[in-house]
Amino acid sequence: MQAEKLPGLKIGKLNLPTPIVQGGMGVGISLSGLASAVANQGGIGVISSVALGLLTDEKGKKYRDANLERLRYEIRTARKKSNGVIGLNIMVAMTDFEDLLRTAIEEEVDIVFMGAGLPLRFPEGYTPEMIQAYKTHFAPIVSSGRAAELIIKQWAKKFGRIPDAIVVEGPKAGGHLGFKKEQIFDPAFQLENLIPEVVAAVAPFEERYAQKIPVIAAGGIYTGADMRKFLELGASGIQMGTRFVATHECDASEKFKQAYVNCKEEDIAIIQSPVGLPGRAIRNSFVKEVEAGEQKPFTCSWKCLKTCDYRTTPYCIADALNNAQKGQLLKGFTFAGSNAYRVDKIISVQELFESLAEEYAASVPANSAVA
Question: Which of 116 and 270 is assigned the larger pLDDT?
């Protein structure tokens, strides 16, 4: 009997042979190297746009200019390496959000994922007619059906178009989380409950506008069996970050990747980020020192996040993540999903896709009859 194949994923004019979206991970964890490798395997490879200016060694260049210059470089490099679907993750909370979005549209990125805030605006000067004509697809990241409904209504009213997809990120994700600390382990807020809620919320709009709005499940998805579970709950695709960190093509340093391989379940913790949000990370000496009240003095080169007050924050989150990306873990830490402790080796992106397909085929559909 032939093994069951992964289902495809259709988002607007994008037709993918797999339902796999690689999560955008900053600072510098998912760049053109990882994104192009994922795209070549039939998934959506996603570049993170967060603080790319920190990755340049050029001195004297303004960070905002450096961000945009490096962003264009990463998008164009990914294009040279792949004919697949290349996406970009942009945080709404970034102070240069509009510049990053404008650059993505100019470079005709296939799809932009917008999270860390409600994306309710486009760059100044962009008319509804222009927005409707863009080749780029747009997918907000939400944590509730209510947020999805609000965004769709606002976009339809202001821009004359609705999102091409919706990503629902649950509380088991790595990095900054869109939940209050007490909600993270509350069963009511788990992804298994959020997916049906969001699918139901978008259904009336799909009928009204005669347009499919695929819902993509994200946060804590680790195996092909997990993938099947969320597709059966109504999702059209899944987003995965943690397992892609543990690949040869990931753009992080080897020390960053080994932090995943070496960590234990008890090392994965919820921390309070200086930007005012809870986040999931691997606890190391840096995290322990901050939790003990130690200050990490820094000079704010540019106010990258709208919610950050550099005068009172104990450390710079951008510097900490940039240091970790480079392997300087005594000066930073690694964000990670709840299943990072399950990583035991570094493999290629191709091997990961093959493993996920095998796991999916071996998993049993929830509605299958047992003889």
Answer: 270
The set of residues, in sequence order, having a beta carbon less than 8 Å from that of 325 and lying 6+ positions away, is 27, 28, 29, 55, 251, 252, 253, 256, 332
User: Is the pLDDT reported for residue 369 higher than 60?
Assistant: no
Between 58-72, 238-252, 270-284, the lowest mean confidence (pLDDT) is in 58-72
pLDDT(122) > 70 = yes
Please state the CATH superfamily assignment of the domain spanning residues 9-252+345-362 in this structure.
Answer: Aldolase class I (3.20.20.70)
Q: What is the 3-state secondary structure (H, E, C) of the chain?
A: CCCCCCCCEEECCEEECCCEEECCCCCCCCCHHHHHHHHHCCCEEEEECCCHHHHCCCCCCCHHHHHHHHHHHHHHHHHHHCCCEEEEEEECCECCHHHHHHHHHHCCCCEEEEECCCCCCCCCCCCHHHHHHCCCEEEEEECCHHHHHHHHHHHHHHHCCCCCCEEEECCCCCEECCCCHHHCCCHHHCHHHHHHHHHHHHHHHHHHHCCCCCEEEECCCCCHHHHHHHHHCCCCEEEECHHHHCECCCCCCHHHHHHHHHCCHHHEEEEECCCCCEEEEECCHHHHHHHCCCCCCCCCCCCCECCCCCCCCCCCHHHHHHHHHCCCHHHCCCECCCCHHHCCCCECHHHHHHHHHHHHHHCCCCCCCCC
Parts of the chain belonging to CATH 3.20.20.70: 9-252+345-362
The CA distance from 179 to 170, in Å, is 9
pTM equals: 0.92
**Which pLDDT band, with edges at 50, 70 and 90, does 371 fall under?**
very low
Token representation of residue 354: 């093959």
Look at residue 130 and tell me whether its pLDDT is greater than 80. no
Would you state the pLDDT for residue 162? 93
For all residues of the chain together, what is the average pLDDT?
Answer: 89
